[in-house]
Amino acid sequence: MKINPIQQVKEEISVLIFNALKKEELDQFGAEIELEKPKDADHGDFATNIAMRLAKPAKAAPRIIAEKLTAALDLENSCIQKVEVAGPGFINFTLKPEWFYSVLDIIQKEGSDYGRVSVGEGKKVMVEFVSANPTGPMHVGNARGGAIGDVLASVLDFAGYDVTREFYINDAGNQIEKFGMSLEARYLQLLQGEDSVQFPEDGYHGEDITQLMRDYIALYGDSELSKSSEERKKALVAFGLEKNIAGIQKTMEQFGVNYDVWFRESELYKSGEVKDTIAQLAATGKAYEQEGATWFGATAFGAEKDEVLVRSNGIPTYFAADIAYHQNKFKTRRFDTVIDVWGADHHGHTARMKGAMDILGINPDRLQFVLMQLVRLMRDGEVYKVSKRTGKAITLNELLEDIGSDAARFFFNLRQPSSHFDFDLDLAVSQTNENPVYYVQYAYARCCSILRMLEAENVFVPEFKDVDCSLMNSPQEMTLLERLSAFPQEITDAADQYEPSKITRYTVELASAFHSFYNANRVKGEDEALMNARLLLIDCVKTTLSNALGVLGVSAPERM
User: Fold this and answer.
1) Which residues pair with 408 in a beta bridge?
2) Of 202, 327, 347, 544, which is the most buried if we count CB atoms within 10 A?
3) pTM value?
């Protein structure tokens, strides 16, 4: 079992508080003990408001209760150095330096596993993300979902869940019909002239459609001309989809995203799952007929409007297939939790989907959503929407060529998914401390440089048991130790809240603490015992930064 130092110490302090409550006969009120980290470091390492919670049932002033509890605490052989009552009745706890030093022992022993926790208990979780329309190339709007979804999956894996990354290929329905008409029109125009057929007004007008048909003609010539329109479209769609899906897979791999499953919507129709799901909904009475169409009564579940399941022409909607798809995730493949990473414009769809799960006998709490806002790309202080090279909308491939996968993944996870933010492309490629990904990677490279330099002089990282850590007591050293101790808890919180940006921000905080330590303290040239202690500290920073960057899917360069 991997160790979470923060969780362990909170449990120890909670036991101390509970014993004090018992001693003062205050345990009878059943008040929950909560420990928080004070925003101001001068207020200690942890604080509890238990005295305020007890004031009403115990009929006493919070501060008096706090002082009684403080006096009743048995701190002998504990990790607590100091306890203080503050303000209206907060109890603040300051940990002994020895506790922070012990974290170095944990990091050295766990190595590449430091930060891993077991809160997931091996439960099966699917993260479905991006799932871009396969009728064209990946655009930059898919980039944030790719970064958020992939890092969230990594966080959950580090937290002890059995994680599956999935891409849902929308290879059925209206957009595929439109794709087929667009391909057929371009195919005929390329072979018979532009005036031979009118291009569909609502078709896909991009150059990628033309290029697909050039590629097809290069391989198969005019072999489709003699066939019926339906046969022709079927062949062209099959060719175009496979090409596009392969392109999407390649782009996502360049982005550092490797999916476990590529699930095709068409399989739900072949297996009869869409038809069966519609029948199940109808059997519950939550689906009804109106104007020749079948509707789902989504307003009963908080949605703004009911939704069409089957159109009047008898063709199921995307929504019907999506319900079947989610039922497949839970009932057929037996995932404990499913997390969909969607754009904020899908907000209304969440209530409808949860309602459908409820009707189908699936606890809707097992279906979770991460809704993300769009990001504005900025270059030279202006909004960057169109590629200077092509004059068209920026593709994800072009973005990765411009700034690289590391910067893209890091920047897209700098903020909470629900927040808007401006992505400064110039900053993302700058080699300055203002660039957060460079700042973090440079901290790692600096750790490697120090260790490499000393190894060249036959000075190696010592074992924790051979180090006198008490020699490290400067403010910068203690801050760095505190940040190191927090990594497993950051993983826990990020997993609980589906908030991967916590890890990105953590790496910046750890890098900042390390740079401050480096600027204020010498390593080489100090007393040998102090040098050894700091050498161990630096090695533990290196390990923790490497693990955190690994979760983010960002490289950890040893030289910069």
Assistant:
1) none
2) 544
3) 0.94
